[in-house]
Every structure is written in C-alpha cells, then in structure tokens.
Amino acid sequence: MTFTPVPGMYIDRLDEVIDSVCRTIHCEAEPGEQATYSPMVNHALMGEMVRRTDPGKRSFRNIMTEDLFAPLGLKDTSVGLRPDLRGRHIKPEWMYEHSHLKHLGHSNLGPDGAFEEPEAEMPWVGIATTASDLFRLAEALRRGGTLDGARILSPVTIAQMRVNRTGEKINQLHGKNAIMRGWDPMPAYSGLGVFLRGTAMCHHQFGTLTSPETFGQHGQGSALYWVDPLHQVTFVFLSHGVMNEAESVERFQRLSDLVITSTL
User: Is residue 244 very low, low, confident or very high in pLDDT (cuts 50, 70, 90)?
Assistant: First the structure.
C-alpha cells in the first residue's frame, strides 16, 4: 500500500509522481496471484496511460475536461482546484490519527496542500467536485454510458466494466482491515474501474440489500457512489469528514441499506 512513492515528496504533478513510481515501486506478487487495492499508484499509472495514448497529446487535465466533464455538464468539477471553485472548496477534516499521511503540493500550503493546487494533476485524490456533479456521472453509468444526449461510453464498455475480474479473491487491503475488526473479509469483486457488490454476506460499503449487480466506487472514508442496475437506483455521498476505514464501511453500509429499502 503506497500513498507517496518517496516520503515527503510533492504529489501534485503527475510527471514527477510517475517518475518516482517507476523508480521506487515494485510488484508484491505475480499477476493474477492476489487482488489488492493500490490507493495511489494504480490511479497514477492509469492517468499516465490515458495521457500517453491520447492522439492529441493533451494533458490529463484537458482530456478529463474536454472528454468527460464538459460533455456531461459537470460544471463544478475540475482536475486540480479551479480558481472559481476555491471559495466553495471544503478541505478534508481528518477524524482519526493520520500523521504518516500527507498530501504535499509545490506551493507548500500545508500537509494537505496538494488539494488546493490549481494546476494539480492527481488522478487518485485530485478531482474537486460536488454531489450533484458526481450524481450526473453515476447516472450516465446507470443509463448505459449516456446522459442528456451525450454519450461517453458504449453499453458494451459498461458491461465490461461490470465483469468480476478477481473472482472470490480477498482484497488484500480491505480484507486485512476487516480481519482486524473480527469481520469476515470482503472479496475484492473488482471490475474495470469499479467494485461490484457480489453475493458475499459481509460488511460492505454498498450495503447488504442492494443487488449483486450493484457497482460503484468509494473514496478514503468520505466519498461513495453506487448504481444498482436491477433496481435502477443511483446513490452518491460526499463528506469532508474522513473517517477510518472500518467506521466508514459501517456508516456506508447503513446508509446504502436505508437508501435501497426506501426506494423499493
């Protein structure tokens, strides 16, 4: 689990992060042996792959803005803290001891200063948004990749995202945390860019009552979205309070179960 490739480094510039990842990070297992969640490195590498394969040689920020945010009408979403959003920006409030975890930016705005950098390109923690914008993105996924006439992904791509690529393998990161709490560990149930609810009866951010086909993502203790395609329900949650993972799972499980039962 890596949050910073080199301790104390600035993380707001994608090219510097990629250079550090390539120099210092190595695989922990052979491909296919484990299912784990890499909270920084995998997102940085995916962002860099998107940038390098872009025919227009655009920056990651411009690709996201032009190909995703603008077509979906996400007016309050940006890679890096866009200046016009600064007055509305809510900083994370850490609700547990996290002295080892810092998000440093080149402007030296404090231990979480990278979140305030206007030019930051951090595919993992670097997108500012609102609940309404996140809902529009999730709704586009529920509707098969389109919203208000803008098609972002094909239904075939959405279907491929929802294929369980990790079988019943335990998520090495989340599973260890579950075992520490005396819980049955959660299977990874990983698709492409999303987690799936699956069939296991366990503590789960998507709740215990959503359908096995439910898919979505969750952030570090403060963000969640899921789509239940069987029941046609979309749910999003944003908070500036960052809880420890176990408490966050319990909270999200309760909220998800309340939402799905109130809509059926």
Answer: confident
Distance of CA 103 to the CA centre of its chain: 16
Between CA 254 and CA 252 the distance in angstroms is 5
What pTM was estimated for this model as a whole? Answer: 0.94
Helix (H, G, I), strand (E, B) or coil at 225: strand
pLDDT in tens, 54-65: 999 999 999 999
CA 240 to chain centre: 15
* pLDDT per position as a tens digit, 32-82: 899 988 889 999 999 999 999 999 999 999 999 999 999 999 999 999 999
Element (H, E) at 136: helix 131-142
The 10s digit of each residue's pLDDT in 206-228 is 999 999 999 999 987 789 999 99
- Residues 58 and 89 grouped into a single domain: yes
Structural domain span for residue 18: 1-129
Tokens of 42: 């995998």
In eight-state DSSP terms, residue 171 is B
Please measure the distance between the N-terminal and C-terminal CA atoms of the chain and give it in whole angstroms: 39
Same domain, residue pair 33 and 157 = no
Cα–Cα distance for residue pair 260/186, rounded to 1 Å:
20
Residue 212 · residue 126 · CB < 8 Å: no
* Cβ count near 86 (within 10 Å): 11
In whole angstroms, how far apart are CA 165 and each of 119, 162, 193?
34, 9, 11
Q: Which of 65, 100, 129 is the last residue of a domain?
A: 129
